[in-house]
């Protein structure tokens, strides 16, 4: 970012165009300068990132850098390259106290690294409190880093729902289902989700609601094995058509559907036709999939450990209109402290608590509709426009500090 003729000119840079963690394909609409084209970002050396970043920042005459944190080594190299040129720096980060791992000497080093930044753009209030505790002045920390294109997901969800029967048939999706979308790794806590779905089925065997899981990763064999252990029907709907052992139970019974990894262009299909979205993570810096689900108009059930839970699941307003029977049902289930305007929060180590939230949502289409509307209202505060506005405010704070000095 640099000042030019009274306005700010923004340059979008990326270290590399590939990552080992995700299988995303680049959209042709993205306009980025790639510093290490053809490289996998996790494999870049500190020296290579430092050298290339420093050269490009100097060539572009950048004044303020917005950088994605100080870790891992590639981010640290970019930060030190910017500081070596005397540039102002804004940290973009979604860490919070619940994801902090550094203690003792490591904590001291982290405070020193955070102190290299002149301002910050963070996810929400837990993230802001965390970086205040690490020494960044509160007035230099802005909220709104974690945003998705709300308009895109809202528009796509509407298009899919307009063609509901056709799209549902194309993807062989159940008429009713809860949705999980993300990587199949340990911290996502998907075994607890499967156990909660099993408990949900035992408590309400007549329910016709399935569980759809979109994603892939190292935990997939274990998750499939757990379904078999719990006698849950499993349905293999991965795009590659990989054959897994099929459930012996007839295909119509509610069960767990494995859809494999999907590109972002397909994800709105799964959001649009779902009854609710579930994010059960044990540890989560934010959880952008919750933003996507909310922009698509879904109620969300989110782990209390997720960094987005405080900001994206607002306490229910007293005037909010839930269906008349809902308060009684929520109280009877012991979920009065867990219900929110647009869904539920829950203890990620309690599959029973998650199961109770699923039972309440399944029983009340009216409640799901009210919560879905609230989701759209809440996530509108975490828009790309808000991201840009607060990124600009953070940059202006650093420039104002420089001017005073």
Give an overview of the whole structure.
The protein has 2 domains: 2-147 and 383-404, Rossmann fold (3-Layer(aba) Sandwich); 150-379, Rossmann fold, CATH 3.40.50.2000. The chain is built from 15 helices and 16 strands. The protein has helices at residues 46-60, 73-84, 105-114, 125-133, 150-162, 164-171, 190-203, 220-229, 267-272, 288-295, 309-312, 326-332, 351-363, 365-379, 384-404; strands at residues 2-4, 7-9, 13-18, 33-40, 64-67, 88-93, 119-122, 141-143, 177-181, 210-214, 234-236, 256-260, 276-279, 300-303, 339-340, 343-346. A hairpin with a 2-residue loop joins β15 and β16 (343-346).
Kindly summarize this structure in a few lines:
The protein is an alpha/beta fold.
Approximate shape: globular
**How many domains, in number, for the residues?**
2
The low-confidence runs, each spanning 5 or more residues with pLDDT under 50, are: 242-251
Instruction: Assign the CATH superfamily of the largest domain.
Output: Glycogen Phosphorylase B
**End-to-end gap:** 20 Å
What's the alpha carbon Rg, rounded to whole Å? 23 Å
Question: Largest beta sheet: what is the strand line-up?
Answer: 11-12-10-9-13-14-16-15
Q: Which helices and strands occur, and which strands form pairs?
A:
Blueprint: E1 2-4, E2 7-9, E3 13-18, E4 33-40, H1 46-60, E5 64-67, H2 73-84, E6 88-93, H3 105-114, E7 119-122, H4 125-133, E8 141-143, H5 150-162, H6 164-171, E9 177-181, H7 190-203, E10 210-214, H8 220-229, E11 234-236, E12 256-260, H9 267-272, E13 276-279, H10 288-295, E14 300-303, H11 309-312, H12 326-332, E15 339-340, E16 343-346, H13 351-363, H14 365-379, H15 384-404
């Amino acid at each position: 970012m640099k000042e030019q003729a009274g306005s700010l000119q923004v340059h979008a840079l990326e270290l590399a165009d590939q990552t080992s963690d995700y299988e995303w394909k680049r959209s042709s609409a993205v306009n980025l300068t790639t510093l290490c084209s053809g490289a996998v970002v996790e494999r870049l050396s500190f020296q290579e990132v430092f050298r290339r970043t420093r050269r490009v920042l100097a060539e572009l005459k950048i004044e303020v850098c917005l950088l994605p944190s100080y870790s891992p080594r590639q981010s640290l190299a970019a930060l030190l390259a910017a500081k070596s040129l005397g540039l102002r720096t804004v940290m973009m980060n979604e860490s919070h106290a619940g994801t902090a791992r550094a203690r003792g000497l490591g904590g001291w080093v982290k405070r020193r690294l955070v102190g290299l930044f002149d301002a910050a753009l963070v996810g929400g209030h837990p993230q802001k409190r965390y970086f205040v505790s690490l020494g960044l002045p509160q007035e230099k920390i802005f909220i709104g880093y974690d945003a998705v294109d709300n308009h895109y997901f809202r528009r796509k969800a509407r298009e899919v729902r307009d063609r509901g029967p056709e799209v549902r048939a194309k993807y062989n999706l159940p008429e009713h289902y809860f949705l999980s979308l993300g990587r199949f790794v340990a911290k996502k806590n998907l075994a607890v989700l499967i156990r909660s779905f099993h408990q949900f089925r035992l408590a309400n065997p007549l329910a016709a609601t399935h569980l759809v899981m979109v994603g892939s990763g190292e935990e997939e064999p274990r998750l499939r094995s757990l379904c078999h252990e719990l006698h849950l029907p499993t349905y293999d709907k991965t795009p590659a058509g990989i054959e897994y052992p099929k459930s012996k139970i007839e295909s119509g019974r509610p069960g767990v559907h494995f859809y494999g990894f999907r590109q972002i262009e397909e994800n709105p299909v799964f959001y649009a036709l779902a009854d609710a979205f579930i994010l059960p993570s044990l540890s989560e810096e934010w959880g952008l999939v919750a933003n996507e689900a909310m922009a698509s108009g879904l109620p969300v059930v989110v782990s209390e450990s997720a960094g987005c839970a405080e900001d994206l699941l607002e306490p229910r307003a007293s005037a909010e209109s839930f269906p008349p029977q809902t308060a009684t049902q929520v109280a009877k289930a012991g979920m009065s402290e867990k219900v929110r305007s647009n869904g539920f929060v829950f203890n990620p180590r309690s599959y029973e608590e998650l199961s109770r939230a699923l039972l309440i949502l399944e029983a009340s289409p009216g409640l799901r509709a009210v919560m879905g509307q609230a989701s759209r209202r809440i996530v509108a505060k975490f828009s790309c426009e808000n991201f840009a506005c607060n990124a600009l405010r953070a940059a202006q704070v650093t420039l104002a500090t420089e001017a005073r000095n």
